[in-house]
Amino acid sequence: MTTAGRDPGLQPERTRLAWRRTTLSCTVVALLAVKQALHGGAGPAAIVAVSLSALAWLGFLWVAHLRVLGMGTARPRPLSARGALTAAACTVALAVFAAAMLF
Amino acid sequence: MNEFVQGLRLWFAPQRIREEGDTPDYRFSLANERTFLAWIRTALALIGGGFAVDQFLPELAWAVRAGLALALLAAGVLCALRAVNHWVRCERAMRRGEDLPVSRFPTLLALAVGVVAVTMVVVVLFGWEGR
User: Fold this and answer.
1) Are A91 and B80 within 8 A, CB to CB?
2) Mean pLDDT over residues A26-36, rounded?
3) CA distances from B27 to A7, A10, A52, A75, B30 (A)
4) In this prediction, does ipTM exceed 0.90?
């Protein structure tokens, strides 16, 4: 990052940290999902549930990683709609797994 | 409603956002992005709450537990979808130089969380157990 064109309000840094906080929240939820899935022992259904939760978590991490890389410039481009949709889709997927595991 | 359908179309054709208006100051876009992330965190917290109700209240009757968990999970899903919608609408309003959209969603979410909290208090006070 060049210090010359650097925003004095540290907006890119704040946004990067917001992504970090969000991935941490996502990690907690994914861990709860794994705990839930393994509650009844490690059968085939549990393995599938764990894999799907891990996939949702990895999808979120991937979006966040690309975005954090994008924050490395002095004037980052706006978030892409695909990134926003993927992050929301991973969140919704975790909720759907939770609902499915209730039954 | 028409406005909503238009917004929904923008979700899947993001390049159309860039076609209209002027690109706002990147700091405004980043602030919008952080608001989006804050809503996603709210959604994740609600979903985590749904998991927690199911995992840490095993002595509740199944119907009560499932009802509470489903309410929290549904709120989380709505919150995540609404985060994308609000982000798209704000981004578009900034490009067009319009006022930012107002929304009654925060009120509805607050009421829903309040109802779930009161239900939890009632359930705990009256020991609504499934034994």
Assistant:
1) yes
2) 90
3) 9, 9, 36, 8, 5
4) no
